[in-house]
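Entry 14. Ran structure prediction on the chain below.
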Amino acid sequence: MSQEKVDRNKEAKRNIKKTLKVRRRRRILGLLATVLILFALVGGGGFYGYQRYQAYQKTHMKSTVVDLSEISNYLSSVTAGQESK
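Output, C-alpha cells:
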C-alpha cells in the first residue's frame, strides 16, 4: 500500500506542469464563461427594460396645448419698436 502511494506521488510530480496547465485553462474558461453569462444577463435586462420603457412611452403620451399668440404679439411689438427708432 505504501509503495502504491509513493508511485502515485512520483507520477503526480512528473505531471505537475500538465496538471497546472489544465487547472489554469479551466480557471480561465470558467472566468470567461462567467463574464459572458453576466454580460448576456445585463444586456438582456437592459434590452427588456428599454422595450418596456418604449411601450410605456407610446401608451402614456402627454400632449400639451400652448397658445403662443401672446408671445408672437410681444415680439412683433418689440421689433416694431426697434424699427421706429
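The chain has a mean pLDDT of 90. Will compare against last week's run tomorrow.
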